Amino acid sequence: MAGNVPPVADERDGLLRFLEQQRHVLKIAAHGLTDEQARRTPTKSALSVGGLVKHVASTEDGWIDILLQLPQKPFDQAMADYQAGYRLGPEEPLESVLKRYDEVAARTAEVIGRIDDLGRPVPVPKGVPWYPQDVAAWSVRWVLLHLIEETARHAGHADIIREHLDGGTAIPLMAAVEGWPETAWVKPWTPA
N or C: which end of the chain has fewer CB within 10 A? Predict the structure, then answer.
């Protein structure tokens, strides 16, 4: 998948393809990193490329659980998982986090593919401080748009962190991942 989403057939296709494209650029930020590099936090924040991929996978999976109205974890456990979800653990390989993210993406596509009406209400969880208490429901469409927004925000974070790690930037990394030939305007990223 190149940096732009190809023409789409309809709204559902468009939402899923834009989400897929944002996942792709987030994963590009991890291309060629060792597990140790994927754990590094080279800026003043506690964010790492591996931790961001792990967080976004967990967040997307959680939103699909909400959409399906599956039971939610107790708040204290959910908060502990949320905080741990930003870190790539010392025994956790980047490859396993990327694989899980692919599994989450497949689940999302499968679930959304079974929903006839993107306007279907998705009840807002109650008792969670960051969800509005005055909104009864979002729509499936809103959830997909939110996932695109969340993924895009963190893909940008990952780009900045990656550049701090080894100077790798989005277009040369994309060229390497997608096998672009070297041109006068872009040289695919290669390890130093």
Answer: C
Looking at residue 73, its pLDDT comes to: 80
What's at 135, amino acid-wise? V
Average pLDDT over the chain reads: 94
pTM for this model (two decimals): 0.94
Q: Which long-range contacts (CB under 8 A, 24 or more apart) does 158-162 make?
A: 158/26, 158/29, 158/30, 158/49, 158/52, 158/53, 159/25, 159/29, 160/43, 161/29, 161/40, 161/41, 161/42, 161/43, 161/47, 161/48, 161/49, 161/52, 162/29, 162/30, 162/33, 162/49
137 forms bridges with which residues in the sheet?
123
**Contact partners, residue 32, CB within 8 Å, separation at least 6:** 168, 173, 176, 189, 191
* Tokens found for residue 101: 């993210």
CB contact burial 131-146 (16+ within 10 A = b; e otherwise): eeeeeeebebbebbee
Burial (CB < 10 A; 0-12, 13-18, 19+), residue 55, is buried
85 confidence band (pLDDT: 50, 70, 90): confident
pLDDT at 1 over 60: no
Alpha carbon distance 139, 120 (integer Å) = 5
CB 59 within 8 A of CB 27: no
Return the residue matching tokens 């800026």: 43
Average pLDDT over residues 144-158: 98
